[in-house]
DNA sequence: AACTAACTCAACA
DNA sequence: TGTTGAGTTAGTT
């Protein structure tokens, strides 16, 4: 019932203009308000005023009626969609990259795949590609939470793969996808170790390039859909899909699953399925490879102890731990 | 006010 | 494609 209301509120097919994006009352009703984005205030009035700002959207004739404040109850569906695409999604680039990588079955993506994911999910980014794509590259290079995984020598294509660092877990635990609670930054020594790991991996020690094994999942999916908050093609902006795909699992379901040690396997699988196996049983924590029994994994325990309350997560699609990057790992 | 995260532009390899 | 730096804006403490 609650989810159904959310779907209605965010459904792009809804004829109510206020439903095109999150309305401010909805956001502000959360216990942890979303940090406002100067380029994406989601109140309907401000959306239209945004036209007067230095909007990167080209000023076509089509938009004149809107910039003149004529967007009204008689507006058309095309106007809705255009307006939807005009508004920058309330996510930082780091969040967008994380979403993209998390959405892949292999747990890693090329730069182009990341571009495509973002453009497919967020119409806003079909414009001004040079600007935001530069920012994407900048963020990939700058942030330690993203790991560059070189291609296998015999694997065709351009560019490296990018994956999420296992220790970057709860970057958005403050409830905002715009601003992380804390930057995930490796110390110098860790950076060097990570560089070594990436170097080793490029020579196949971690079997990164044979492709994921059949049935491979980057993180536990049986109970956790890839995008709980639902970056659905027709809904986007973090809206739960209408399908039955999103059934909030009970925390007990998660606990039992992660206590099996599968979370440890998922660490390894994010960086190639045989990371764990090739090291004779271990996991990647930060940049260190540990040899411990999977079930006695500090990260696992920490994760299990920090499972979110899913009943509350359903209330607000912008609430923090709604995509699995935040659920999969808990930094210790 | 100071600090920090994020964004943008740009230069360069 | 990837890295790095500078400058700016804005949120947090």
Describe the structure.
The chain is mostly helical. The chain is 38% helix and 5% strand. The chain has helices at 2-10, 24-28, 44-49, 64-67, 77-86, 93-103, 111-121, 129-142, 188-202, 251-270, 275-278, 298-305, 310-313, 324-328; strands spanning 108-110, 146-149, 161-164, 283-285, 288-290. A three-stranded antiparallel beta sheet has the order 1-3-2. It has a two-stranded antiparallel ribbon with strand order 4-5. Helix 6 crosses helix 7 and helix 10 packs antiparallel against helix 12. Mean pLDDT is 50; it is low at 1-75 and 202-332. Keywords: DNA-binding, Nucleus. Residues 88-182 bind DNA. Residues 22-32, 41-59, 68-78 have a biased composition (Polar residues).
Order of SSEs: HHHHHHEHHEEHHHEEHHH
Between the first and last Cα atoms, what is the distance in angstroms?
36 Å
| Helix coverage percent | 25-40%
* Percent strand: 5-15%
Keywords: DNA-binding, Nucleus
Region (Disordered): 21-82
DNA-binding region: 88-182
GO biological process, one term: anatomical structure morphogenesis
What descriptors fit this protein?
5 strands; globular; mainly alpha; 5% strand; DNA-binding; 332 residues; disordered N terminus; three-stranded antiparallel β-sheet; 14 helices
Give a nutshell description of this structure.
This protein is mainly α and 332 residues long.
Break the fold down into its secondary structure elements and pairings.
Blueprint: H1 2-10, H2 24-28, H3 44-49, H4 64-67, H5 77-86, H6 93-103, E1 108-110, H7 111-121, H8 129-142, E2 146-149, E3 161-164, H9 188-202, H10 251-270, H11 275-278, E4 283-285, E5 288-290, H12 298-305, H13 310-313, H14 324-328
Antiparallel strand pairs: 1-3, 2-3, 4-5
The protein binds a DNA duplex (13 and 13 nucleotides) through helix 8.
